[in-house]
């Protein structure tokens, strides 16, 4: 075990870093910054989300749920919310879509961000 290890930042690959950062900024209210020459967000706890556009190969969005031979998800956020139905409506208004396949019953809803990354809105 490495002593005193924490997550300093997380990089999200996408085709349009500005659009993806704007979506998550509006969804979370986190501060828009530039970090390591990348568009980024700073969470309330200090964690940094970096948004990166691949230089050498095109971004391929993941398939949800996973399918053999298809691009698998690269990350998955679980956002805790007070009012799940309202959070789902707001995420859709901001550009997300609700996944056609759901596994969370009344506890969480799987959404897809504008780049196709899955994330969940979860009841607190």
From TrEMBL:
Residues 6-124 form the VOC domain. Keywords: Dioxygenase, Oxidoreductase. The keyword Oxidoreductase applies. The keyword Lyase does not apply. GO terms for molecular function: dioxygenase activity. It comes from the Bacteria. This is Catechol 2,3-dioxygenase.
